[in-house]
Design a protein that fits this description.
The protein is mainly beta and 275 residues long. It has one helix and 15 strands.
Length: 275
């Protein structure tokens, strides 16, 4: 209901400015592109761990529902709906599902152009819940693997990420406030900083090498640093649809809510459809 009220208020704002603005419903691209190395971004693809028999499956998308262009300023209201799933690799091409996390919510974005640069922000109001799945259960031993039983994990949070972009380089920083979280022992503040860079005009316009780094400080009983480094090639323009193939290094607490207090470190090969 709260989300619906926010949406209706935004529609009223749309009609107020329509006379002097260019209004689009469901534009073809996002006002603010996903931050390349950030874990919580919309993806449709796989991440194959090289050091262990695990892989991540992402199915999801972010869309701009409404965009208002007013001179050199863009305002957008959109939605986020995606899952990120942990699977194991076994013989005979079997991939039991171990754990799955769901994220859904709304976002508001702002971007301003000046010269050949731009700056702005993305605000999110989102919910995440996490669950163990039957692939984690050991039917022969009649119990959960490694003695890790299911536990309640969910959070509702507000996230604000600001950015500055010049050419192919974009730097960003922000924070998240968890206004409702379980387990209640988890603290409510997280902080984030990072960058991504797409090499412009490399060979030809539809071939885009990129690199990105993301540092997130999460607050459990103490602050812990999560590092994510990605580098690869996108077949397509940086801010358009395409296919990305990349290498990712991750070190920090697990991104999956059921394992939120467990350390993970891995290198993985990723394939992502940028929709």
């Amino acid at each position: 209901m709260k989300f619906l009220i926010v949406f209706l208020l935004f529609l009223n704002f749309n009609f107020f400015v329509k006379a002097q603005s260019n209004v689009e419903f469901f534009p073809n691209n996002l006002t603010v592109q996903p931050f390349t190395a950030n874990i919580l971004e919309p993806k449709v693809g796989f991440l194959f761990h090289l050091s262990e028999n695990e892989l991540r499956l992402d199915i999801g998308n972010s869309i701009d529902i409404l965009r208002i262009k007013k001179g050199d300023e863009w305002f957008s209201f959109g939605a986020d709906l995606f899952t990120y799933t942990l699977l194991r690799s076994e013989e005979n091409f079997r991939f039991p599902v171990d754990a799955v996390d769901y994220l859904f919510g709304f976002n508001f974005t702002y971007k301003k152009f000046f010269e050949k640069k731009e700056y702005g922000f993305r605000a999110r109001l989102s919910h995440i819940s996490a669950h163990l799945v039957d692939g984690r259960y050991d039917w022969q031993k009649n119990g959960w693997r490694d003695g890790l039983n299911p536990r309640v994990y969910s959070r509702e949070f507000f996230e604000l990420m600001s950015f500055y972009k010049s050419g192919g380089l974009r730097i960003y920083c922000g924070f998240a406030y968890l206004f409702n979280v379980k387990p209640v022992s988890i603290k409510k503040d997280n902080y984030q900083i990072g960058f991504d860079y797409f090499l412009p005009n490399f060979i030809y316009t539809n071939f885009s090498p990129f690199i990105g780094y993301d540092l997130k400080l999460i607050h459990l009983d103490k602050y812990t640093a999560n590092h994510s480094l990605s580098a690869g090639i996108k077949f397509g323009k940086p801010e358009a649809k395409g296919l990305s193939v990349y290498l990712n290094f991750y070190s920090g607490k697990s991104i999956h809510g059921e394992y939120f207090d467990l350390n993970k470190e891995y290198t993985a090969v990723g394939i992502n459809m940028d929709l």
